[in-house]
Amino acid sequence: MSGLGADIREVYDELGAITHIVNRIPVVTTERILYDLNAQATKPFIREHFLDATLPQDTSITTDDVILIVETGKNYLVMNKTPEMFEDSIVEWNAVLYSCNLVSTACILRPVEVRVGYNMTTSWSVIAEAPIYGLMSDRLFGSEIDQHTASVGQEAVWRVDLYLPKFYGIKPLDRLYLTDTEYYKVESVQNYNYPGVCVALLVEDTRPFVEVVADDEYGEY
Length: 221
Known about the structure:
The protein has helices spanning 3-15, 44-49, 215-218, and strands spanning 17-21, 28-37, 50-56, 66-69, 74-86, 89-99, 107-116, 119-128, 135-137, 144-145, 156-157, 160-165, 175-179, 182-190, 197-204, 212-213. The chain is mainly beta. The N and C termini lie far apart (47 Å).
């Protein structure tokens, strides 16, 4: 650890907020960070869900980690991690944190074909069980006109963004289940914008809700 990095580390030890990395097994405890409201904090949604943070030089926090800030009791997804340099050495890290707002019952399901007698029917395999950590938002970009619809009088199609760690392995056609009355189909997945985080585009899911089957019985779709 460089001399300046070590001096800055002492500031974190004295003033930093204690965090736990909750997606690790076992959970990594007593990491310290400094954080503040995002620069665009005049927008209510950003004020509620986004934080700017700095991390000490020797932090073990990485992009795609989910951290619990102990003093607030809130979980955040680490979206990026960029170095702060001094004389060709990293002295600390800058990061942007997204608040995790999925309900405690959220899980990710994948369609599977199941034979019932002589017929094949679609059921669901559990890919990731609760708790699922991610930010779901339809407020950043709003709605857009579906340009693929050829009919006259196009309707606005609401698409919801889900920011999710890549380690969940979410794919198009998966279902994000929130409750028995609220679930979404994954229309597409963007993996190139953030190092450890994907953006899943969610749309209304009109597929029937049928029995969930075990992974080890039917395997993946």
